[in-house]
Write a structure and sequence with these properties.
Length: 75
């Protein structure tokens, strides 16, 4: 594990089904862009987001209907 200061980005995320995801991609006013990743990469990112959410104060874990997580930022 890395010690010291770490730079992260805050990510707002939701668990949605494929149908809802397709609606977001098809919407002309949506800021959503379809990107394909291997299932293992999605699983790993989801795990990191959920674990970081668990470490946050309870009052900061949700923003409206979105879960809040952190991902380490590449520099």
């Amino acid at each position: 594990m890395r010690e010291g200061r770490r730079v992260a980005i805050k990510v707002l995320y939701q668990d949605i089904d494929a149908e809802e995801g397709n609606k977001l991609v098809d919407s002309m006013t949506s800021g959503v862009q379809e990107i394909s990743f291997p299932a293992a990469a999605i699983k790993a990112a989801r795990q990191v987001l959920q674990e970081s959410n668990d470490l946050m104060p309870a009052s900061e874990r949700l923003f409206q209907q979105w879960h809040v997580g952190l991902l380490e930022r590449w520099e």
